Amino acid sequence: MTDHNALDGRDEVLEVLDSLQAELANGPDWENVALDRFLDAFNALLGSIENAYTNTDRPIPDSPWTMVAEALRGARFYE
Question: CA 20 to 30 Å from 43, out of 22, 34, 36, 70?
Answer without folding.
Answer: 22
